[in-house]
Amino acid sequence: MKFKMQDKQNQLIERISDKHLVVGVDIAQQFHVARAVNFRGIVVGDPLTFENNEDGFTILLKWINELKRINKLNTAIVGMEPTGHYWINLSKWLFEQNIDVVTVNPYHVKRNKENRDNTQSKSDKKDALVIADMVKNGYYAIVRPTSESFEQLRVLMSNRDVIVKRLVSSINQINRWVDIVFPELRQVFKDVTGKGAIATLRLFPTPIELRSMQPQNVVIEWKSLMKRQPGLRKAQLLIQLAKRSIGTRQALDAYKFHLQQLLEEYDLATTQLVRVEEQVTEVLKQIPYANHLLTIKGISEISLAGILGEAGDLSGFAHGNSLLRHAGLHLAEASSGKWKGQIVISKRGRSRLRRFLYLATMSLVMNNPEFKAIHTLNVKVKKIKKMKSIMKLVGKLARIFVGLAKRNESYCPEKLQPLTSLAA
């Protein structure tokens, strides 16, 4: 069945009936502002400012129920911008009260601000009214309740991103430190973060400590930190290089103190990264179709966890193209009359989901025979540019993921044989 996004848009518009109270909420850290309209966009009631706590949420609920009673409406739908993390608690509380919650794109809110009064003015009350108008017109996304496992993956993968940034930062600073104090270390150890290099930095922070040592003593010191250590030849080379090092000889105590802190940060980030990835593996075991998706050669647990954490339950998507739109990987074109603009990726969606889908596809192109063959067909036979071929394969991966999740099936390479046979 061909997926048409216009059908989805029509469904969102038809969902708002003449019995709906449409509420727009402008989200902030401490105080939210709510406005309400009916299905025709006529303003209903006065603006409401309420606190970001349970008492404020209760006031909002009473305000909604009172407006429904006065205007003889049966149901309510609440729209809000996903501003930072401030909207999460309110949306979950309203969902527990059996009230539909939807989100609107902040970029769309900015573009629709002049619809009401034809001015560029901005206020919390006006923003809330603009949000309500957008929901009434069907420009919203349904907030689907996330199960425990998917929310755990989202939190863990977000935590992992922070840890990786800290780890990369500490590695970069260690490299800078080596370049200043002991640049010749790279002639012995190509990777400064390798076990041998890190052990050397722990034991002999500067070249001065090495100049007076014997190779045998260096190897003995290495043995205290490593099960498999470099031999005498590397120890001799290290001592020779230390004797004629061009590294700085000033403020060495401060440099050693700095290195000690960098190694502590490196150790902490490394340990935390291992722990969070162990947690991710355990959570993936709780998702029924995760094992089926992992049968695809080239898909790692981390890339799958990143996709599931950002997208949620893949079985809830109507089509793989819906997943692409959720990630902002759908195509956008600007054309008018005889002029036709360039087709580009919209990038209006979850940036982290885009990243994980792209990285997973790159891994498949390198490791999966079927995806590698299709990429070869696209580039060498169809003469498609490499990046365009990769983006087409991202779409194929999204459709495969959604299809396997909805049917709870394992990956079947034979279904891609017609395409791979053309590439042979």
Write a structural description.
The chain has 18 helices and ten strands. It is an alpha+beta fold and 424 residues long. It has three domains: 139 residues, Nucleotidyltransferase, domain 5; 129 residues, Helix Hairpins (Orthogonal Bundle); 134 residues, no CATH class. The strands form three sheets. It has a six-stranded mixed beta sheet. It is elongated and about 90 Å long. The mean pLDDT is 88.
Can you give keywords for this protein?
424 residues, alpha+beta, Nucleotidyltransferase, domain 5, Helix Hairpins, 6-stranded mixed beta sheet, two-stranded antiparallel sheet, elongated
Write the topology of this structure.
Elements: H1 5-14, E1 20-26, E2 31-37, E3 43-51, H2 54-70, E4 75-80, H3 88-96, E5 100-103, H4 106-111, H5 124-136, E6 141-142, H6 148-181, H7 195-203, H8 207-211, H9 215-223, H10 232-243, H11 252-284, H12 290-294, H13 301-311, H14 320-327, E7 331-332, E8 335-336, E9 339-340, E10 344-345, H15 351-367, H16 369-381, H17 386-407, H18 417-423
Parallel strand pairs: 1-4, 4-5
Antiparallel strand pairs: 1-2, 2-3, 5-6, 7-10, 8-9
Brief summary:
The chain has helices spanning 5-14, 54-70, 88-96, 106-111, 124-136, 148-181, 195-203, 207-211, 215-223, 232-243, 252-284, 290-294, 301-311, 320-327, 351-367, 369-381, 386-407, 417-423, and strands at residues 20-26, 31-37, 43-51, 75-80, 100-103, 141-142, 331-332, 335-336, 339-340, 344-345.
